[in-house]
Amino acid sequence: MTRKTMKVSNITCAQCAKSIETYFNDLPEVDAKVLVTSKKVIFNYEESRYDIDKLADHLRIIGYYPILNSEQQEKAKKKDIIDLILAAILTFPLLWTMFVHLGIQVPVPDLLMNGYVQWAIATPILFFVGRRFFIATYHQIKGKNLGMDALVVLGTSAAYIFSVYTTLTYVPSPHHAMPNLYFETTAVIIFMVLVGNFFENRVKEKTSNALQSLISLGAKEARVRKNGVDTMVPIDDVKPGDTIIVLANEKIGLDGIVISGKSYVDEAMITGEPMPAFREPGSRVIGSTMNTIETLEIKVTAVGSDTVLANIIQTVEDTALIKPKAQRIADKIAALFVPVVVLISIIVFLLWVFVVDGGHEVSHAFGPAIAVLVISCPCALGLATPTSISVGSGIAFKEGILYKGGEFFEIANKISAIAFDKTGTLTKGHPELSDFIGEQSTLQYSASLEKHSNHPIAEAITDAYDQEYLEVSDFQVLLGKGIKGTIQNKTVYVGSLNLVKELNLNAEAYDYETYLHQGKSVFFTIIDQEIVNMIAVADPIKETAKGVITELKRRNITPYMITGDQEITAQYIASELGIEHVFSEVLPHEKALKIAEIQKGGNIVAFVGDGINDAPALKMADVGFAVGSGSDIAIDTSDVTLMTYDLGLVIKAIDLSLATLKNIYLNFFWAFAYNIVMIPLAAIGLLNPSLAGIGMGFSSIMVVLNALSLNLFKFKQIPTEE
Fold first, then answer.
1. Is the entire prediction scored with pTM above 0.70?
2. The pLDDT of residue 602
3. Angle at CA 88, nearest 5°, toward 86 and 94?
4. What contacts 53, CB < 8 A, 6 or more positions away?
5. Which CATH number fits the domain 432-538, given the four candidates 3.40.120.10, 3.40.50.880, 3.40.1110.10, 3.10.20.540?
6. Number of other residues whose CB lies within 10 A of the CB of residue 336
7. What pLDDT was estimated at residue 95?
8. Tell me, what's the pLDDT at 562?
9. What's the 3-state SS for 326-383?
10. Closest alpha carbon to 611 in 587, 590, 631, 584
């Protein structure tokens, strides 16, 4: 079976996923799984029977728009914008007439009040602009899986049909004014849903391309050595067992083992750790990481889909399919509301035909039956979720929180455990000088020497020094040990404990063990064979981290730490923050397994991370929070993006989502209260259509006003610690 991933422009919710998966389940030798947040479909298919173009054709049949290249993506975007602009232009004049229906005295041209003119304006909105809803509803009915699209079709079609019937049966008379029509309801529902989809699509578009473009992080070519000759060849032509040469400041093209050379390799994009790793003969290296100091000769061990980077991509996609897709509240309601209302309408029609009119006047029965559909028109139901989420998302954006879909609002109140990555999430992600032991004047020698190095440790030391630098000559990098140079005719070293031992010096007076047990890295400055100072460097904890952990525990949400770092460092950071549950030395693909392990205990689990190595865990978690300073793939695979380093945004995102969910439920209360009162009145023929119009308008206005009340929400401030 062949595996391919295809982007689809108009996937908006879990209902879309069910429609697509149900359709392809009925086709032989093909399986489709949908990633809703990333707007992608993963196909596993028999290559002899299908190709990517045929699969795309099948998606188009059921009303979805596959994106096979950037040109198609631009076309799909333009199509959405054209539909939205057309809906806006045609909706405005109909919306103008609504004020008259509501009894508000505003000047409206007589032409617009003509039923046939309104009919002509509403028709392209319903059948051209709204075609996507009809196509989707058709396939939802086939799959016995009604959703939001069915609500839109029911409401718009009922209002349209009733208005057409009223227009055709109206007999002009000086004693009878033109009855109220509902063409504007048809237009407004479609326009509002399109506006909501447009903004949601723009948010997802900004964050959904990372997986497809991730492979471009790798090198395009590799320098292969054969028979003593180095030749640049495309990465796809390199085979396991080949020898590649990687110069300083070049990307390592593929996974392999170092067979010659020593260097520091920046693996932060894969492991998340800020310190470059020392690599020497026998060490393993990962493709797409950066060689920083010296030339390395590497024997290739994995290519193509076997590399670490490719495995991370596949793990992310696979875990996304395991993760349950939350169904939106509106979709759940639609599954019950639509068939119930249609059934009530049919019963009303039959009762009027055979009971009230004794089987004589079908036209009398048609009015109340359609009135039931019009009055139960789910305008307020359709607005209930998107209006609250739009307001909530706008408030969140001002705080630096980006929600990527409505599903998060429905699950945030159930979170019982939150797991955090360490580096770049609980900590700042870059080393800083934390302790200096020795004469302050000797720091000038340390900083002057480190100024010539590009190692992150060097930057930590020079950032903490703001005086004059001394002149350095004979600078050398001692790979895996430190650096060396001559300053004022003195031989100066700054290096690790290994360097101290190699020079046969004793550093016990500096009590370095204490600092090592705190997860810090220690370095010594040696001048003419004498240790003059010790420098401790650490990745500092974020100011709000402890306050966030304390607040989570107060709410009975259990905090966890999952990190690839060594156990000593992980345990020290965890003890400082009050985290009792720690998983250390965890490989990238194992993070997702740890999340699954926590979930097995019956927990709804959130994960907060920032690196490529966090992507599988972000996707496996019930809710994924990506720190916005992190990698594109972490942001792509998350449900919520925190656009600043402030970890307190996790609490704010959860609190705002709870307030938004309560707001949505209150919206549904208004919508249902209206329906419960109005449907029986319509069924027995007592309801004046104009009153129904006023009630419908009032219901929608209450939904909007209630959503706007979210602006009164106040965020809880998390204390900071230096």
1. no
2. 87
3. 110
4. 68
5. 3.40.1110.10
6. 10
7. 75
8. 92
9. CCCHHHHHHHHHHHHHHHHHHHHHHHHHHHHCCCCCHHHHHHHHHHHHHHCCCHHHHH
10. 631
Confidence at 544, pLDDT banded by 50, 70, 90: confident
- What's the pLDDT score for residue 216? 54
Name the least confident of 345-359, 500-514, 642-656: 345-359
CA dist 631 and 614 (Å) reads 9
Strand order across the beta sheet in which 473-478 lies = 432-438, 530-538, 521-527, 490-495, 482-487, 473-478
- Contact indicator for 636, 429 with CB cutoff of 8 Å: no
The reply to whether 614 belongs to the active site is no
Residue from 547, 581, 607, 545 nearest 415 by CA: 607
pLDDT of res. 311: 66
- In this structure, what are the phi and psi dihedrals at residue 525, rounded to the nearest 5 degrees? -100, 125
pLDDT in tens, 290-341: 888 889 999 998 887 677 776 666 655 555 454 444 445 666 666 677 788 7
Instruction: Determine the Cα–Cα distance for residues 579 and 517; give it in Å rounded to an integer.
Output: 17
> CA torsion, points 235, 239, 242, 246, in degrees to nearest 10?
20
Q: What is the residue-averaged pLDDT of the chain?
A: 79
Q: Pairing relation of β-strands 2-8 and 40-45?
A: antiparallel
CA 197 to chain centre: 16
Q: Are 667 and 387 in contact (CB under 8 A)?
A: yes
* Average pLDDT over every residue of 384-406: 74
Would the pLDDT of 624 be above 60?
yes
The set of long-range contacts for 103-109, using a CB threshold of 8 Å and a minimum separation of 24, is: 103/694
Q: Of 86, 105, 26, whose CA–CA distance to 62 is shortest?
A: 26
Q: Are strands 605-609 and 417-420 parallel, antiparallel or unpaired?
A: parallel
Fold (topology level) of 2-61: Alpha-Beta Plaits (3.30.70)
Q: Given 2.70.150.10, 3.40.50.300, 3.40.50.12780, 3.40.50.1010, which CATH number is that of 219-252+255-302? A: 2.70.150.10
What is the per-residue pLDDT for 406?
Answer: 61
Q: What is the DSSP string of 120-183?
A: HHHHHIIIIITHHHHHHHHHHHHTT---HHHHHHHHHHHHHHHHHHHHHH---BTTBPPPP--H
What's the chain's length in residues?
722
Rounded Cα distance, 587 and 649, in Å: 27
Residue whose token pair is 């919206």:
667
Q: Is 189 a residue whose pLDDT tops 80?
A: no
Q: Hey, what are 143's tokens?
A: 């799959």
The three-class DSSP label of residue 4 is strand
- With a CB cutoff of 8 Å and minimum separation 6, the contacts of 503 are 493, 526, 529
Domain 400-428+542-649: CATH class, spelled out:
alpha beta
Catalytic residue among 266, 421, 622, 639: 421
Token pair 């709204």 is at which residue?
Answer: 130
Q: How confident is the model at residue 607 (pLDDT cuts 50, 70, 90)?
A: very high
Number of other residues whose CB lies within 10 A of the CB of residue 640 = 25
Rounded CA separation 616/562 (Å): 12
